[in-house]
Specification:
Helix content: 10-25%
Shape: elongated
Order of helices and strands: HEEEEHEEEEEEE
Number of helices: 2
Number of strands: 11
Structural class: mainly beta
């Protein structure tokens, strides 16, 4: 009896997945964001500007086998660069009043045990653009999935004129870095 109680206690207090075992855990299921951040890096000749948000709305991942449908939505006005004037200029540039969200949606397929490759549409400033072969590093635990990604997009498909400072335009590249912890969504709508 004592042995059975110890085994049950060990199962209830589940430690992180041992190294290598996560390779065999399926992604199948409905996932929601537990925590995370999206960081943007704007290149400029004088110095880069970084902004980030940790606030997500209506975001989910639905996985079947090694394929996931992903939808991540964040309010544009939650990205902060530690410069209120620059933040206001960026909000005006991306027409945040009319288009308050940045949305990433699409599918990702598991490439190997620690990598997925995504085909996504990014919606910003009321415009959409598709991106292929976005790498996503994944780490699977019993109840959680950690995803990390770093990629760059061009701004011109989303805005008419690049913002400038002292007569110099910012670079057309916007680096995006994501780090998200997903947890199983037990109350998913079927």
């Amino acid at each position: 009896m004592k042995t059975i109680l110890i085994v049950l206690l060990c199962l209830l207090i589940t430690p992180p997945t041992p190294a290598g075992l996560s390779d065999y855990l399926p992604l199948t299921g409905d996932w929601k964001i537990k925590s995370g951040q999206i960081k943007i890096i704007i290149s400029f000749v004088l110095h880069p500007a970084e902004g980030q948000t940790e606030k997500f709305e209506e975001s989910y991942a639905q996985c079947q086998g090694d394929k996931c449908t992903i939808f991540v939505k964040a309010r544009v006005d939650t990205f902060k660069t530690k410069d209120d004037k620059r933040d206001a200029d960026l909000l005006k540039t991306v027409k945040a009043e009319q288009n308050p969200f940045v949305i990433l949606s699409g599918e990702a397929m598991k490439k190997d045990n620690n990598t997925m490759v995504g085909q996504f549409t990014i919606e910003l400033a009321g415009r959409k653009k598709e991106y292929k072969d976005i790498p996503i590093k994944i780490e699977r635990d019993w109840n959680q999935l950690r995803s990390q990604s770093l990629f760059a997009i061009e701004l011109r498909p989303f805005i008419d004129k690049l913002p400038s400072f002292l007569g110099l335009e910012i670079d057309d590249k916007l680096k995006i870095e994501t780090s998200i912890i997903w947890e199983k969504n037990e109350r998913a709508i079927k």
